[in-house]
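Record 1 of the preview.
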Amino acid sequence: MSRIGKLPVEIPKGVKVQYTDSVITVDGPKGTLSRSVMAGVIVEISDASIVVTRKDESNGSRSAHGLTRTLINNMVVGVTKGFERALEINGVGYRAEAKGDILNLSLGYSHPINFQLPTGIVVEVEKMTKLLVKGIDKELVGETAAKIRSFRGPEPYKGKGIKYADETILRKAGKTGKK
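->
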């Protein structure tokens, strides 16, 4: 039995959960999320919790059990609290500016980068070098943060580029002069 899969997902007050035709929909104060449930998994909704069980002991059902429970839990947390991912920009002249749903990045290239944010994602820029990617879908928040980071990943010599706030860059020693 999956240790994570057997834990029930608690439904907080103000959250409505519906399960029809193998699609689960979670509606809360921050928005609505929907996801199709994998085959081999049974979802049972009671008043205060959601319980995920397996149909059988096949490898597909066993692997989908814990994953489905975690995805449903992320949906419930997303519509109540939301998710966020912090990024930092390091480098002389590197900066970011948010204008509506477009993120304008100056990262040392000959041109600025205008990144169109996906629907449901908000980016807050603090001091032009700190970004906070927010949203209710955990997967989309992480994907957007990774896309922004990919425009100029941190380099190992001076640490210039975009990095996650909790990431540590392993530094390399540069060239040594001739003695």
